[in-house]
Design brief:
Strand content: 15-25%
InterPro entries: MgtC-like_C, MgtC/SapB/SrpB/YhiD_fam, MgtC_SapB_SrpB_YhiD_N
GO molecular function: methyltransferase activity
Oligomer: single chain
Structural class: alpha+beta
Family: Belongs to the MgtC/SapB family.
Radius of gyration: 27 Å
Keywords: Cell inner membrane, Cell membrane, Membrane, Methyltransferase, Transferase, Transmembrane, Transmembrane helix
Subcellular location: Cell inner membrane; Cell membrane
Distance between the termini: 62 Å
Shape: elongated
Number of strands: 6
Length: about 230
């Protein structure tokens, strides 16, 4: 009977720690209006703690190890559900990573290691708060096309009747300069003109070479204009 009570209170402590730490992590997410907010993070932490605690009670250390492995993979599927593609950007990666890390907080709580659980929670909060100014600083730095692996596009504008010619010019010019093409897409289309863009395979490029290619393509009488652009996202 004493063992039963001891196990019960161990479970109560583990779930309480997971609940408290999940609340702290979730509050920060809720404050920033993220997809997975307060309740989601609390439930992930408590659920992970409950399953790991159950694994310990039913199968000892070996049982907890197996359950932890399932928790890791299971939270991975849950995190995939919050990742969305919004136009050319992918959103939700940080939210998914936070959920995955919150499960680790629950797993530590479930194994009876509240100090370690609190430490993991502290690092999660630091990653989501203290690193934000550093991320903003890096994002504000100007992009250097000569050293950054990024996505380059060669743009051409032509009349609708010359689209086929423009495609061939893009392909031939880029192939001649050993720039592999991932795709040629139509960015805009009207009655008077069409804008095409050749998306290059992610690589580093020489801006002077890109300028030379643009000028050469623009000299063709069927082309209205030609230029290039670079970005860090597709």
């Amino acid at each position: 009977m004493m063992t039963t009570h001891h196990n019960f209170w161990d479970t109560a402590l583990a779930l309480s720690v997971a609940f408290a730490l999940g609340t702290i992590i979730g509050l920060e997410r809720q404050y920033r209006q993220r997809t997975a907010g307060l309740r989601t993070n609390v439930l992930v932490a408590v659920g992970a703690a409950a399953f790991v605690d159950l694994g310990i009670r039913m199968g000892g250390a070996d049982g907890s190890i197996r359950v932890i492995a399932y928790v890791v993979s299971g939270i991975g599927f849950l995190g995939a559900g919050v990742i969305m593609k919004d136009g050319g950007q992918v959103r939700g990666l940080n939210t998914a990573a936070t959920l995955w890390s919150t499960a680790a907080v629950g797993a530590f709580s479930g194994t009876g290691l509240p100090g370690e659980a609190a430490l993991v929670a502290l690092f999660i909060l630091a990653g989501n708060t203290l690193l934000r100014p550093l991320v903003a600083f890096v994002d504000r730095r100007p992009l250097r096309p000569d050293t950054t692996e990024a996505l380059y596009r060669m743009h051409v504008v032509c009349h609708p009747e010359h689209v086929s010619t423009a495609r061939d010019l893009l392909a031939d010019e880029l192939e001649h300069h050993n720039y592999p093409i991932q795709d040629i897409e139509t960015l805009s289309e009207g009655d008077d003109y069409v804008e095409l863009a050749a998306l290059l395979v992610p690589t580093s490029a020489d801006p002077k070479e890109l300028d030379t290619m643009s000028e050469h393509i623009a000299q063709n009488r069927d082309i209205i204009s030609a230029t290039w652009s670079v970005s860090t996202t597709n």
